[in-house]
Amino acid sequence: MTEILLHGFWRSSAAYRVRIALALKGLAYRQQPHDLIAGEQHSDAYAAIAPHHLVPALEYDGRVLIESPAILEWIDAKWPAPPLLPVDIDEAAIVRGMAALIACDIHPLNNLRVLNAVRGDFDATNPQVKAWIARWITQGFTALEILVARHGGRFAYGDTPTLADCYLVPQLDSAERYRVDLAPFPRICTVGEAARALPEVASARPELQEGAPDRA
């Protein structure tokens, strides 16, 4: 099989999503880390690959794919088994909506470049930045908790992992990292722990990736 090369950063939630999906599909891949803290994503070499200077980017068969939602949909379409979206188009739309709630409404407001702008442009203190992060995670999780209660089973949607879990696990990690109060979200926590318990998901954890401090 043609090599899959994943450009990422060990702590990137978006790259984490892709690692989870690849692992759930049983796909082998090689990683190329880029230290976002050090600004390696702005190098000319990486800009030639990903002109938006963000991770993840995925190289396969001479093509470069960017943006985790597009990459995840491509992975699921190219390697359909096991599926990460329900076959029924209405159910698939619900899963996509759950994923988008995280990808569009929570994560972009809390990623590194936004947090740096909040600090640099508005002189926000660390407590203010943490409050900013908690605000958007809490607001998004409040809606997601209802959806998981309505549609979830063992996992975020039903009893098999879906794209919703690929998005949820990294966001749950981020919430815990910033000590967001998760007590109001028992269903999210339950399905999140079920997903984390899968060996495939566990193998994608940030601290196990090249570049992580524990691996230095």
What's the number of helices? 10
Number of extended strands: 4
H/E element sequence: EHEHEEHHHHHHHH
Low-confidence stretches: none
The CATH class name of the largest domain reads Mainly Alpha
Q: Note the overall shape.
A: globular
N-C termini distance = 31 Å
Residue share in helices?
40-55%
Could you please say which CATH topology of the largest domain applies here?
Glutathione S-transferase Yfyf (Class Pi), Chain A, domain 2
How many discrete domains? Answer: 2
As a percent range, the share of strand residues is: 5-15%
Class by SSE composition: alpha+beta
Written description of the protein model:
The protein is of the alpha+beta class and 216 residues long. It has 2 domains: 4-82, Glutaredoxin (3-Layer(aba) Sandwich); 89-201, Glutathione S-transferase Yfyf (Class Pi), Chain A, domain 2. Helices cover 55% and strands 8% of the residues. The protein has 10 helices and 4 strands, in the order βαβαββαααααααα. The protein has helices at residues 13-24, 44-49, 68-78, 89-105, 107-110, 112-122, 126-151, 163-177, 186-196, 199-203; strands at 4-8, 30-33, 57-60, 63-66. Strands 2-1-3-4 form a 4-stranded mixed beta sheet, with helices on one face. Helix 1 (13-24) runs parallel beside helix 3. The radius of gyration is 17 Å and the shape is globular. The relative contact order is 0.15. The mean pLDDT is 97.
